[in-house]
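During the no-cost extension, the postdoctoral fellow (Dr. R.K.) reprocessed legacy sequence entries with the updated structure-token encoder. One reprocessed record is reproduced below for audit purposes.
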Amino acid sequence: MSLSEWLLTKRNVYIKNNIRKISLKIPDGLWIKCDKCGLLMYYKTLNKNYKVCPECKKHFPTSSHDRVKQIIDKNSWMPNNINLASTDPLGFCDKKLYHKRLQDMQAKTGLLDAVQTGIGKINNLPVAFGIMDFRFMGGSMGSVVGEKLTRLIEEGTNLRIPVIILCSSGGARMQEGMLSLMQMAKISSALYKHQRKGLLYIPILTSPTTGGVTASFAMLGDIIIAEPNALIAFAGRRVIEQTIREDLPENFQTSEYLFEHGFIDLIIPRTQLKDQLYQVLSFYHKPHQ
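Re-encoded structure tokens follow.
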């Protein structure tokens, strides 16, 4: 081995060892890679951009806590019905006992169930706001989700303020059977009374919004808003294709497809959602409210 080759080998070993040392010093969760465009970004950068990729605009999943910070004015959020928690009325068991699954989800998310509700302000305009959280059992709608949303709508009606529900759900919660399906009618009935008073209701459909949520309050808005490229559906693609015996378009069940076919009214990126909600609310706002 010549001197130059020996020096080159030593240099490569030195670089390799130092790269290993540097990588060991980087804590977990510091960087994140966009699975759509491959952009490697600092996690705080993603958070500052409302968890939207700055390169390809992919909307990453986010929590109900983050949603409150993104949309509601600082120090204006007043949560309600915070102590409502699901029980196990059917003694249901699949791979795990339902009551044990609830306990695990509560410990993991810090929530008692899959929705947060409360009264807050958007640029100083009051709203009744409900935020579903997909982290809690896929945002599934059980008795507590239905009860909290119904109470929220009733409070919005009594206060004569708009109701906004941010939807993120896999549908009705099978572990509560018919009790879960009943929530569709209960929430829809409360919305009917709210809208009979001439009050505004806006659902915001995020990815995913499916099943019984889509079949009820997610599609009953005066103005229906969706995030870009959100999955919005009732049944799955395979079930529909097998039923109608036809192939579906590639972008079927996306917010863009539904917008083109008149199912939703607006597609608004998360980074612009608060400002555009304010514009809509300002248009409908009545001074005596």
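Residues 3-25 form the longest helix (23 residues). Residues 23-60 form one domain. The remaining legacy entries will be reprocessed before the final report is submitted.
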